[in-house]
């Protein structure tokens, strides 16, 4: 697995976690807990943005690892 693929997988996982945190903040009635979930969601958004920036850097530095839609699903 390339670094680019690992970053994409990590970003997807973090987006899922972020969505769960947002959902938890809406589902809880305790204001303090809501605040904690919202804060964690915002912090995860910052991490996601940072990783997406890094992903773009990696793809620019190593263009051979950028998968194009036409090459997906084809075996070498």
Automatic annotation (TrEMBL):
InterPro entries: DUF1657
Protein's name according to its UniProt entry: DUF1657 domain-containing protein
Organism: Pullulanibacillus camelliae
């Amino acid at each position: 697995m390339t670094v680019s693929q690992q970053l994409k997988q990590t970003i997807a996982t973090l987006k899922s976690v972020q969505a769960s945190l947002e959902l938890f903040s809406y589902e809880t009635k305790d204001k303090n807990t809501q605040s904690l979930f919202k804060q964690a969601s915002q912090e995860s958004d910052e991490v996601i943005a940072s990783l997406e920036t890094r992903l773009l850097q990696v793809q620019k530095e190593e263009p051979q690892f950028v998968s194009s839609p036409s090459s997906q699903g084809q075996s070498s």
